[in-house]
Amino acid sequence: MKIELVNLRKEYEAIKNELKQAIENVFERSDFIFGKDLQLFEEEFAKYCGTKYALGVDSGTGALELALRALEIKEGDEVIVPAFTFYATAASVCYVGAKPVFVDVDEKTANIDLNRVEDILKKNKKIKVIIPVHIFGQPVDMASLIKISEKYNVKIIEDAAQSHGARVKLSDGIWHRTGSIGLCGCFSFYPAKNLGCYGDGGIITTNDEGISKKIKLMRDYGRTGKYEHESIGYNKRLDTLQAAILRVKLKYLDERNKKRREIANKYRILLEGLPVRHLEVKDFAEPIYHMFVVRVKKRDQLRDYLAEKNIATGVHYPIPLHLQKAFSFLGYKNGDFPVSEKLAKEVISLPMYP
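Request: output the structure for the sequence above.
Response:
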């Protein structure tokens, strides 16, 4: 028997009758673009996150790009991005002509190091936005980040691509969903996410009416009527079929996230006493374990051993962003972000699916 890293088939089997009916309903209505289920899903997801608006788009990458464009980030601007995350966070900054400024991460949590963020903001006046990534579904210390952003007058776009349903406690003592705290929250619905569709998809959450209106225009060719275009826009829409699938899955998200936390707790108990380092969960965070990631010194040997036992593993991520060839034009070098480099050599993702 092989143990997969992620098992999408298991989730499908549990709710396939509902999924088939939802898909059939879309076929019957034939409202494939901006249809009924998209409108309902946007309303339901906004309510779930605690925001006024949610706008379905083509992907998590597209969400980040459109959020940056809505904030009018452009050439000459600079945006803070953690060095240890997926490529898309930094690439979206490049898409709008701005410059990613990498920051090392906290060794205990793998999230962006806020002390280093402030160090950069003290010196660099070109920074317009910070993009915190709630890595592996573990929330960033948003209460502290809000104070920093207000002090230096920079905006926050949350990369919540891995944190559907995660919560973080703010200075008001209230728990808030990730994606509801910055000016925009950007989510991916890639199939393997905690809330994933059966293709590509994404969504942007916001409480700002002006930003919402801009994104609505940009995601659909900048049009105000069928053949009337107010501005230069893009084809970055979430289709109705995917929205219908996501509506079904959203009903089970909290339950499945709870099971992920239970699995994570079992891992911690069973791995006790072994040469394994866990990422720390802070008191202000309620993670949702998109991945269960641990650190081991002999990572590659462990992966080989587990593969022999038919246990799949992953590495998220083997190369930090500053050492990716795609970002070599930024001029970073090996040694610039030692924590990110160390994590890239030690992290291993263990099977995680409820």
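The first strand starts at residue 53 and ends at 57.
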